[in-house]
Amino acid sequence: MPITRSALAESYDRFLDHAAHYITEDADSGFLNLGYFTGTSMSLSEACARLTEEVVATAQDRQGPVLDVGCGAGGGTACIARHWPADRVHGANISDHQLDACRRRVPGAHFHLMPAEDLAFPDATFRTVISIEAACHFDRPRFLAEAMRILRPGGELVVADILFHDQPEVFGRFLSGGEIYRDIGSYETIWRSAGFADVACRDVTDPVWRGFVRNSRARALKGLMTKTLEPAAFRKALAFADKIAALPVSAYVIARATKPAAMS
Fold first, then answer.
1. Which CATH class is domain 5-246?
2. Nearest to 141 by CA among 149, 133, 153
3. Does pTM top 0.85 for this prediction?
């Protein structure tokens, strides 16, 4: 059964308030993604920022306005605001608690309480719409329809998304009842069905999902060996990494597409 929006927001609020219980470093970074790891020496916040940079680099526009859908606690939005004028940056989320954190992190940007499937903006508002590791919680066809509507002709949608080939048996408070995509091709199909052109998915499963697991285990072991991590904290960190490893991931992608220029 799909999780309700209010239950999802409450689960993430609790996770953020107690992140240090699961994450042994950078628990207050404002990021809520797995990160993009290029080496074992990267911290989690560095990897999360790198994932945001990979998404931003996929987008071509730098004028804005730009919308970050599912902006979490604002870590990613703060990175986005380094590439667009802050007053041209908008974020949308379903949690007031997280939006308060966003406003503290990115004071010049604009934040809105609204779901991805019902974005209360006029047609053709944005040049760019971004979403980073939040779409697994969306009704994706409805989100894509809304993104199409609020984008200007020629505008672009860039999404970092995790695809599951089966229902996850872990993290039920976050992931129960989500959509199933057994391969990247079936995922690209829903983008084309929404009217997007030039749909392209870059498979980043290894540096993101597998990278998180590898690096989480390595950091936990290093912390135990150097005595900077107590045995109980080591076990918690390892258990969290094992749960991420158990997810039925078919692919992790950075997807980009454009709204045809002839559309309005």
1. alpha beta
2. 149
3. yes
What average pLDDT does range 1-7 have in this prediction? 63
- Taken as a whole, the chain contains a residue count of 264
How far is 5 from 252, CA to CA, in rounded Å? Answer: 23
Give residue-wise pLDDT tens across range 123-174: 999 999 999 999 999 999 999 999 999 999 999 999 999 999 999 887 766 6
DSSP state at residue 76: H
Q: Is 133 a catalytic residue?
A: yes
Tokens 């944005």: give the residue. 126
Strand, helix or coil for residue 228: coil
Domain boundaries, the chain: 5-246
Please check the confidence at residue 29 and state whether its pLDDT lies above 80.
no
Which residue among the candidates 133, 146, 156, 188 is catalytic per the annotation?
A: 133
Q: What are phi and psi of 223, to 5 degrees?
A: -60, -40
Which residue carries 């950091």 as its tokens?
219
